[in-house]
Amino acid sequence: MELFIAEFIGSLPTIVVLLVIVGSLFTLSKGADTLVDEAVSLATTLRIPKAIIGATIVSLGTTLPELSVSTMAAVNGNPDLALGNAVGSVIVNTSLIIGISAMLKPIKLDLESIKVQGWLKIISAIMLILLSMPILYKNGIGRVTQGTGFFFMAILGIYMFWSFKQSSQIQEDSEEKTEKIRVSSIIKLIMGMAVVIVSSKVLIPAVEVTAIRIGIPQSIIAATLVAFGTSLPELTTSVKAVLKGHGDLAVGNVIGADILNILFVIGASAAVTTGGLIVPEMFYRLHFPIMGIVLLIFRYVTLNKGSMIRRREGLLLFTFYLLYLGLNMTNFI
Q1: How far is residue 169's CA from residue 9's CA, in Å, rounded to a whole number?
Q2: What is the pLDDT of residue 65?
Q3: 323 lies in a domain?
Q4: Residue whose C-alpha is closest to residue 107's, from 252, 310, 254
Q5: What domain count does the chain have?
Q6: Is 272 exposed, middle or buried (0-12, 13-18, 19+ CB in 10 A)?
Q7: 8 A C-beta contact, residue 36 and residue 244
Q8: Which of 274, 262, 265 is nearest to 145 (CA)?
Q9: Rounded to an integer, what distance in angstroms lies between the CA atom of residue 148 and that of residue 128?
Q10: Residue 45 lies in a domain
Q11: What's the whole-number mean pLDDT along residues 71-95?
């Protein structure tokens, strides 16, 4: 489907492609509005903290692009793309998305609701790095083995079970709350997710085609659009949530998406290949260190800055994204 969309957009005149970009941005915004509003409504009806809704249901929906891109890349024998997309998305989510969101409007946090998720996010990243170290393998080549993939999937299953169990315990009267949930609200939430994802899949190839036609080098396009494109649902949803005053939903969405990128996206990508995912040496020199630094900064900010991520902390995270982007480009030049 993605190939068909890219080929179709590539055959259009530039003026039509620009109209596609405008239309995609509009539908992306409206889809994110619907997704945020219905997620907040669901959290209110069930009396579940918005951060938990963001870390489970919303993040599961917005992570689907990363899952589809990485698993297909792994099956097609392209582990660099499978792993790079997931790790790059973690960096984009934590630095760019939280950075932009906090710079637009300071984010109020519900730390108690996402305390466990926050630590699981750090632990998952540590496990990914340690279990893929070249020193563990005879040929000295780092890899995420198929066994590690299944291990990550098992942890994910436990995490999701725990999350929904915690949600049910928070409800005072689950049966009464369930009756209050309107089917239309659930349908709207799913439709909002679908519109965000589909709009993203149309927008990115349209931007890429335009960039190529105006002469932007392919190397720069490759370094910016892959992880950014699959993280666009998280970006749009988080920014909308913050602007609507639901910062805890935005933070929950990013934390949940990061956990899913490591345990679900990388786990599933490794599990579907008998040889697992080979980890190029570049990951240990650039991607893993930046991911670790960004996650630690985010954890420090959320633990030690009270109940809010201020604009200056957002600027710090955003600066690290620019650093990561610049280091990526130097490897292409």
Answers
A1: 48
A2: 65
A3: yes
A4: 310
A5: 1
A6: middle
A7: yes
A8: 274
A9: 9
A10: no
A11: 77
Domain enclosing residue 300, as ranges: 52-171+217-330
Q: Which residues contact 116 (CB under 8 A, 6 or more apart)?
A: 162
Vertex 133, ends 131 and 139: CA angle to 5°?
115
DSSP states of 235-253 as a string?
A: HHHHHHHHHTT-HHHHHHH
Q: pLDDT digits over 191-223, tens only?
A: 877 877 777 677 767 777 777 787 755 444 544
Q: What angle do CA 135, 137, 140 make, to 5 degrees?
A: 65
**Model confidence pLDDT, tens digit, residues 251-275:** 888 888 888 889 988 998 888 888 8
Output the pLDDT for position 128.
94
**Tokens 């009396």 appear where?**
47
Task: Tell the residue number behind the tokens 């540590």, with chain if given.
Answer: 126
Helix ranges restricted to H, the chain: 2-10, 14-46, 50-53, 59-62, 64-75, 79-91, 98-104, 115-131, 146-170, 174-180, 183-213, 218-243, 247-260, 267-271, 281-282, 288-304, 311-330
CATH number at residue 78: 1.20.1420.30
User: Is position 184 within any domain?
Assistant: no
> Is the distance from CB of 309 to CB of 98 less than 8 angstroms?
yes
Q: Please state, as a whole number, how many other Cβ atoms lie within 10 Å of the Cβ of residue 18.
A: 13
Model confidence at 47, pLDDT cuts 50, 70, 90, reads: low
179 assigned to some structural domain? no
Residue type, 118: G
